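Subgroup meeting minutes
Present: P.N., E.W., G.H.
Scribe: E.W.

1. P.N. recapped why we're keeping a running log of single-chain structure predictions: easier to compare across weeks, and new members can see raw inputs and outputs side by side.
2. G.H. added today's entry (288 aa).
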Amino acid sequence: MSGIMKIDNRLCLAKIRSLYPSFSAKESKIADFILRDPQNIIHLSITQFAEELGVADSTIFRFCKRIGFTGYQSMKIALASEVVTPIKNIHDEITEEDDTKALAEKVFRSNMKTLEDTMEIIDTSSLEKAADYILNAGRIEFYGSGGSSILAMDAYHKFIRTGLNVAAPSDSHIQLMSASQLKENDCAIFLSHSGSTKDILNVCKVAGKTGAKTIAITNLAKSPLTKLADLSLYTLSDETDYRSEALSSRIAQLSYVDTLYVSVMRSLKGSGQEALEKMRTAISTKRI
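Output recorded in log:
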């Protein structure tokens, strides 16, 4: 992932998640161990850590450098600041005992943290390339399945204002039919938190075969969708039991759509404003 924004040195776990798709097998093994039990790492020396994984001390040291730290000790300090004194309530689980105020605070804080963490791992070069794909496309189609189909429709609602040729088919059969008609200069954008929804993967495969540019907006992880898409824009969220339906990540995905929309409208200049005025005139008849 080239062009990733510089991440705050305290965000060790965010750094690991952001770079995870590009890790080698050994680096992934180290990353998995840290992500699975970060508190344990704080109490291990570099030699003990290396022995736990059956790798050399130098491999651990290179991993620390790889994720932006000067060495193992600086990584441990950053990790400790995250897992020992986390920001109050942000990582708290919602419980049946929570009153309405506590519940609202936890949901809002979770959403805010997702936006902040996602902003830290934005790959600006990928974001610019995605906007370029859209600007140069003869046709732009947004795809989502289940709850993500609503996100795709929201993207359509935004981009129809640009005057560009956009669509967001919702039925899985029509999605496949529509994707099969894309051309090399078209663009298909897939919204999926898990990146492993079968219907969306099938549509992405079909779109890819046409030569159209494919963009995934998905949670940061190695997933089948990121392997299929030409370009991926990643969100970073910690979903809990009550938030397991990708609630907070949805906010980050919508923010990517908004950013792309603003970027495209800025590039379109006069033609974009003209299309926007036509839309405003048309819908003005709906108001009293």
